[in-house]
Amino acid sequence: MKVAVAGCCHGELDKLYETLELLQRRHNVRIDLLLCCGDFQAVRNEADLRCMAVSAKYRHMQTFYRYYSGEKKAPVLTIFIGGNHEASNHLQELPYGGWVAPNIYYLGYAGVVKYRGVRIGGISGIFKSHDYKKGHFECPPYNQQTVRSAYHVRNIEVFKLKQLKHPMDIFMSHDWPRSIYHYGNKKQLLKMKSFFRQEVENNTLGSPAASELLQHFQPTYWFSAHLHVKFAALMQHQTNIEGQLPKATKFLALDKCLPHRDFLQVIDIDHDPNASDSLEYDIEWLAVLKATNNLINVTSNAWNMPENNGLHAKWDYSATEGALKEILEELSHNLKIPCNFSVTAACYDPNKPQKNMEPVHIISPQTTEFCAQFGLTDINDRIQQVKEERSVRGEYEEEEEMDSTESAEEPSEYYTDNSGLSFSINPDEIMLDEEGGDEDQSTCSVDPSPDHPPDFSASFSDTRIMPDSMMVSSDDAMDSTNEDVEKSGVSEQTEEKSLNERALKRIGKNENGNSAMKKIKRRNQAIYATEDEDKV
Length: 536
Description:
Blueprint: E1 2-6, H1 13-27, E2 33-36, H2 46-49, H3 64-69, E3 78-80, H4 88-92, E4 98-101, E5 104-106, E6 110-115, E7 118-123, H5 129-132, H6 146-149, H7 155-161, E8 170-173, H8 186-192, H9 197-201, H10 208-217, E9 221-224, E10 231-236, E11 248-253, E12 264-268, E13 279-281, H11 283-291, H12 321-330, H13 365-374, H14 379-393, H15 398-405, E14 463-466, H16 482-487, H17 494-507
Parallel strand pairs: 1-2, 2-3, 3-5, 7-8, 8-9, 9-11, 12-14
Antiparallel strand pairs: 1-12, 4-5, 6-7, 6-13, 10-11
Helix pairs in contact: 11-12
């Protein structure tokens, strides 16, 4: 089946789907599935905008609300993970995953599903060691600390994923696995993103937690975004089992959704022709969720996961045959994920803007139903219970605010947190305006697309089609040019080649040596002009 993979979406759903439609028309292909690697920005209304970790002046409504309201429907099944620029209050409603709109599915803090027999997993957010061992304690209305810590990866999600034993076909993370850049064309990467050099040389760029999962799963494909650059790598894994061939992971990171950027890739992936066309639960993942339910922590206290170190009575929470059989019986062998999307918040109305709308903590009916079916703890319900208990005791949340800023806990098992103390400045990212804490967030700008937007699809022509695979070879680790790497997976159709040549001319240097990028007009150009505190 043909799977389209997108980098950072940044709420540009209309443009993303228009690009897919253009691709299908020009090349007579049918896209079966769209995967988005974070910064999806499922913003429903003005309150959601206030829960995005960007300065108020950079908050724009974009077009997701049209899919949430039912005005539009996603033309292809879309699965996404969260990044570090999200409507965190919306995604928090679905900690175990769920539908954010018809045909658009969120994987949750971490999740695994199946589609046409292909096993797809993912983990949302980015890595920060000072929040890694905490529970998911944040809830709206967020403060200046929790609006950021809400999207930081937690050790319990990594622990749950590491209980899985069956092979993984596709895995997604927003930030890159640490060290993956050593398995691709590092020279070309640093040519395009020179400000990563020190972290690459020190091997501190990326997420150590994602790297741990990469070593554990050794999936066929791993997709990421976050750093706003296209980068391919081939990681050959080692095997300790005699007679077993070593596995290899094809890694691909993609750019953000803007004209003439490599934000979209189409890949042919083997699937089971007899499998259901519906999105399905993964029974091993459900069994692990049930087994680890008692490990849930909704406080800001550090929480160590069980290890085989003599301190824990149990450390193996992997699924047993009995547990898998029990899940199948509970579902009556029907693994189809119900299409039970429901509206939980008012949708943005461009004719009646509500700039003073405040975010509230919502418990989603989808999550309530899911937890009831499988005997799981509704994390948001537990958070509310803890808040009520503290209120009765006269306690306040100042402790949480303090804990979110810096680590007062025992050190993480990862010896550094270079993700938070990045030496590089990515001029291509969104800046979190630390000085803007006193800004009146009620004045956040709302910039919805017009009712009849122009045809942007012609500008989004830099789409690569890889007919058989990602075509990543060991040569990618050499000092070959990026153009050679790109050509290995580009369709040889003359029309697409000419489109790419035109795009390269526009983003190249002019005769005076100045970047021609300045000539490209982009509505969101200001958003991407400055640094993000949580870049890596």
